[in-house]
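We give the entry.
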Amino acid sequence: MRSASPPLTQPAVAIRGLTHRYGSQVVIDGLDLDVGSGEFVCLVGASGCGKTTLLHLIAELETPSAGVIGRSAGRTAVMFQENGLFPWLTASRNVELALEFSGVTSRRQRRTRARELLEVVRLGNALHKRPHELSGGMRQRVALARALAQEAELLLMDEPFGALDAMTRDLLHDELERVCAERELSVLFVTHNVREAARLGDRIVLLGSRPGRVIETFDVSIPRPRRIDSTEIATLAAHITDQLRQEVIRHGR
């Protein structure tokens, strides 16, 4: 079981004074944020507050305009809402391709490792199925296995379960929590669903809008395992939602 709030003595990610512009528009302004080793941090905020941009900057998909992003974690994997699976490849081959890109040269080793990873996400019986033969939740499990194939220590997740129904999302919360605990992954998870953040996170970071900056941080001390429909989750989510609403109103004015 993951601890409620791991210490931040050796952060997997340390961000200081991060600023990013698109032309004359400042999207992120002077943002400071740590993600502790083995910590699950959820980012919430109104649309346009720079959550996705922040993930892109950490993943080095974009270059910041100013500031420093320090990483002590090893490899970084990114998982988006769109699973990005190759439709003509089986589940196993989609994972094998990630292993090939990660430097696993032996085809036999890739096959074995892909099978092991799909077992980790409970898809050992779907090795030879193509994406169109899988449900939305199963496709996201393949995407998670593909992310794990990169032997990442830091996992960046951009609303990976946003398009799924409530029951499937709840089951994947359990799977993600289990995998992260087993591998001691550091996770930065973007979501618009405040209850989802309270269900998953060790810590929830509320970003302000235009430009994005940290407004408030909430430590989640609710013991695990958690249920998304529990009174404790609902109470915390309601409090954070009130803070988010005030920020939206402030920005609107």
About this structure: Residues 5 and 202 are 5 Å apart (CA to CA). Residues 231-252 form the longest helix (22 residues). Residues 1-8 have pLDDT under 50 and may be disordered.
